[in-house]
Amino acid sequence: MRIKLGLNPLSNAAYLTLTDTTDTSAKTDQSSNSKPSNSSSRGGRRRGRGRGGNKKWSVDQFVVEPQEGKVRFHDFDLPLSLMRGIQDAGFSYCTPIQGASLPHTLRSHDMVGKAQTGTGKTAAFLLSTISDLLKHPIEDERYMGEARALILAPTRELAIQIGEDAEQLVKHTDLKVHTLVGGMDYAKQLQKVQKNHCDILVGTPGRLLDFANNKDIHLDQVEVLIIDEADRMLDMGFIPQVRRLVRLTPPREDRQTLLFSATFTPEVLRLSEQWTDKPVMLEMEPERVATDTVEQKIFITTASEKFNLLQNILKDDAVESVMVFANRRDICRTLYERLKKQGFKVGLIAGDVPQNRRMKTLESFKNGSLKVMVATDVAGRGIHVNGVSHVINFTLPEEPEDYVHRIGRTGRAGQTGISVSFACEDDAFLLEPIEKLLDMKLPCTMPDESLLADIPTPTRKRSPAPKKEAPAKAAKPEVAETAEAQPLIAKPVVEKPAAEKPVEEPVKEEPAKAEPVKAELVKEEPVKEEPVEQEAPKQEAPKQEAPKEEAPKAEQEKAAE
To answer: Are the CB atoms for 418 and 410 separated by under 8 Å?
Structure first.
């Protein structure tokens, strides 16, 4: 029986209707008794649940006053160790999707949920999954790598984020979480899997298939299957891999399946019919998600003015932590390089960036070492960074749903945020589909002239500094300092220190000589100036003409950049 909840998912009447018409006892018994039937011969003994410091902690220490219209986690029969993890995570009241889904998922119902990012759906399915695993412990022997819950995510960043959230919630239990994503060392991931039992397994389809094909993980005892961002799985072409993984799990009647998607396309609904058993259909409309906690601004500008507009916004002291989105990797890289030259602490996350570097960049952004994160839509879903004050759409997304995902990086967990989008002659037509999805008119304004003002590039600010230093060094010790810095250039000057004219002539030529000095200074900077760094050794072999010719080239390259 398929039941669709109305627009008010917190309605008690909806819950009662569902409960009265659905028999849950058979499935609950099945999930608790039928799953470990083949586990008697498996190696590794599982620890008992509920140990550690939980006896010293009481739910009375987690005080959340009842409020009208809000659902508390106290209102559900959740294990004590899980409640402590909820308190540590800073949760107090359920988000709408959590309050609407938990009454059903905690009773082992399958669910197909339509929800946007930033609504709290990750915690919704994690809480019900963890609760089920704690209430139905396995005391028999098990294989290492045998998963009890399997969570599939389309992107590496989303999988890693889900894994981190799960680890936070289970830290007062004996449950073990493993995250497997591509781009990371297989052997190191395998070592972790073989070290501890696998209760919750999170990963991307490709890497999970690699482990399954190598018999390094076992999915035949999965009790809970969760497929997150199903529409994204379709868009990225992962469905064939997902199908193979689903076939490795028990039949749908013998597992609980939770499927979430930002949209209910015919393809998504078809997959839900294949993979779920009598699911509850839950729809959370997006308009409330996008507008409640995020202030949205649209600046009408030209393509040539966008970068100046971006820089001036980033210079504002009120802009603390920013995610800048663009549609293509080449645009993102160009933005990253230009912002870096402007002196901003900026990172880049895109599909062509190695995974280990993406993780380091994301960690630096989370801890505040980086102020700006430039990203494609690979980071638009699932990445949760506390305190993102602004989201800037340098280019409007081609898919309206991606707009909601992008701005969902700010204004999370009840906090407020600001979204600023640039609309020019190339992408202004994309506004209408976004407004249609949100069912609202977005405020469009012209940016103030101060936001379009040119900002001098750092190369122009830095270049006078070496020029001033070089003459200063030549003026005081006359030639001695220059001789130490550039012996090949300074030798002719040292030979005639007494005569005024020979000393003045090299000073006139100082701009030409100063350039090699700049090249030496650039050598001390990181990787970004590699072309100049390669030319520096060539200056030592030739006579004076070589540096004079090469130096202007270096200056021209800097000006071009």
So the answer is: yes
Listed residue (208, 225, 202, 220) closest to 272, CA to CA: 225
Query: Which of 255, 278, 280, 251 lies closest to 132, judged by CA?
Result: 255
Amino acid at 532: V
Q: What tens digit of pLDDT does each residue of 403-458 get? A: 888 888 887 656 788 999 999 999 999 999 999 888 888 989 999 988 998 877 76
**Chain center to CA of 19:** 38
In angstroms, the CA 417 to CA 411 distance is 4
Nearest to 62 by CA among 53, 70, 73: 73
Summarised one tens digit per residue, pLDDT across range 483-497 is 333 332 333 344 444
Beta strands 200-203 and 280-283, pairing class: unpaired
Q: How many CA atoms lie within 13 A of 20 on its CB side?
A: 6
Cβ neighbours, 10 Å, residue 3: 16
- Positive or negative, the Cα torsion across 482, 488, 489, 491? positive
A 10 A CB-CB count for 366 gives 17
What's the whole-number mean pLDDT along residues 256-274?
A: 92
> How much is the pLDDT for 491?
36
- Rounded to an integer, the average pLDDT of 275-279 is 95
Residue 68 Cα distances to 65, 368, 511, angstroms: 10, 37, 74
- CA distance linking residue 259 with residue 380, whole number of Å: 19
How many Cβ atoms are within 10 Å of 76's Cβ, its own excluded?
Answer: 18
- Other C-beta atoms closer than 10 Å to the C-beta of 503 total 16
| Cα separation, 42 vs 130, whole angstroms | 22
Q: Are 442 and 300 in contact (CB under 8 A)?
A: no
pTM of the predicted structure, to 2 decimals: 0.61
Say what the pLDDT of residue 455 is. 79
Q: Is the pLDDT of residue 98 over 60?
A: yes
Structure confidence at residue 201 (pLDDT): 98
* Domains present along the chain, CATH in parentheses: 95-284 (3.40.50.300), 288-452 (3.40.50.300), 464-560 (no CATH)
pLDDT at 355 over 60: yes
pLDDT of res. 417: 87
* Average pLDDT taken over every residue of the chain: 76
- List the beta bridge partners of residue 483: none
Q: What DSSP string runs through 436-485?
A: HHHTSPPPEEPPPGGGG-----HHHHHTHHHHHHHHHHHHSSTTHHHHHH
Q: DSSP string of 112-154? A: EEE--TTSSHHHHHHHHHHHHHHHS---SB--TTB-SEEEE-S
382 pLDDT band, cuts 50/70/90, is low
The rounded distance, in Å, linking the Cα atoms of 496 and 333 is: 51
Alpha helix locations (H) across 170-204?
A: 186-195
Instruction: Identify which has the larger pLDDT, 502 or 65.
Output: 65
Quick check: 306 and 394 in contact, CB under 8 A? Answer: yes
Can you give the pLDDT at residue 236? Answer: 83
Cα separations in angstroms, 320 against 90, 308, 376, 448, 526:
22, 18, 20, 21, 26
